[in-house]
Amino acid sequence: MPLYDNEHHDLFGSAHNFFIQKATQYSLKEDGISAFVVSRHFMDSKYNSARDEIAQNHTFLGAVRLPNNVFKHTKAETDIIFLQKGKHPEYNKEISKIKPTQIMQDGTELKQSINQYFIDNPQNILAKSTYRTGQFGNGIFYEPKDDENFNLDTAINNFIQSQLPENIYKSQKPAPIKEFSIESYEDNYEYAKNLKENSLLIHNGEICRITTSFDDEIKASKVENLSPAVQNRIKKYIPLRDKLKELIALEQTNIKDDDLKLKQTREQLNALLDNYHNSEGFYQGIKQQRLEI
Q1: Which of 77, 132, 233, 257 could form a disulfide with 40 if both were Cys (CB 3.0 to 4.6 A apart)?
Q2: Band of residue 183 on the pLDDT scale cut at 50, 70, 90
Q3: The model's pTM
Q4: How many C-beta atoms surround the C-beta of residue 99 within 10 A?
């Protein structure tokens, strides 16, 4: 089931995709380096959406594939991936190129996708690739190597020393948050005063977040470092949220069910919801249903 974050509305997706995006986008400093242990399906999935989203604002430094005995009770096949926040083309490896099929030694075509990175860097597969029958049919599985002299810790350290670039992290002071006041009707004051702190809004064409909403004082700041895809998604989400609030407020009055304004508001919400669904997928991962209310 897809995960969703009530505070950061741009985040949603499967467990490993969700936490990688949240950690890199909101917890990692600019130029910071992170290492994630994830299911191999993050790298090998034939769908590129999660990898493309991360590649918008991050540098993929490399990865290693682990044998399936690392997590003995689950036999999970996992990778360690290394990312740096920010775009550094001189270090970046291709993360989204996928080979959809593989040809086995006997000529059998196996419809099991694999990331091109591991095809180009087979030394980073720290396991023995075995073709056998598993729970879901024939496939390639990554099992411990037969070499009794092989040490996984040493192999990972060798990868870090020999393949990850040196001295790429530069400590940076965080940029100050530039707040501005919303004081007049022209500045969306009447609209903004009904929003809670941390709510998103569009101000002068920019995506902003309410930082202070106390008595008559309302302050906001521009949300930085959003990818174009995320900006587009948020700009479609905000009118949807506002129209839903408008409908709820109307229905809490004594308005009649056949009132023209109520009908128009419902139709407008349906149209916004359909537009969001058609371009961004199912809202919060829940199956789309028209609001026949």
Answers
A1: 77
A2: low
A3: 0.56
A4: 14
Q: Which two tokens stand for residue 29?
A: 């400093």
C-alpha–C-alpha distance, residues 265 and 262, integer Å: 5
Q: How far apart are CA 287 and CA 267, in angstroms?
A: 19
Among positive and negative, which fits the CA dihedral 165, 166, 168, 173? Answer: positive
Tokens 């990850």 found at: 164
Write the pLDDT tens digit of every residue in 158-177.
Answer: 999 999 988 887 766 655 55
Distance CA 159, CA 63 (A): 9
Q: Is 78 helix (H, G, I), strand (E, B) or coil?
A: strand
- Side chain identity, residue 35: A
The SS3 assignment for 89 reads: coil
Give CA–CA dist 38/16, Å, rounded: 6
Q: In which element (H, E) is residue 159 found?
A: helix 152-163
Q: Which of 277, 279, 280 is nearest to 288 (CA)?
A: 277
CB 250 within 8 A of CB 268: no
CB-based contact 268:291 (threshold 8 Å): no
| E strand or H helix that includes residue 217 | strand 217-222
What sign for the dihedral angle of Cα 5, 81, 48, 231? positive
Whether 164 and 22 have beta carbons less than 8 Å apart is answered as: no
CA dihedral of residues 279, 285, 287, 293 (deg, nearest 10): -80
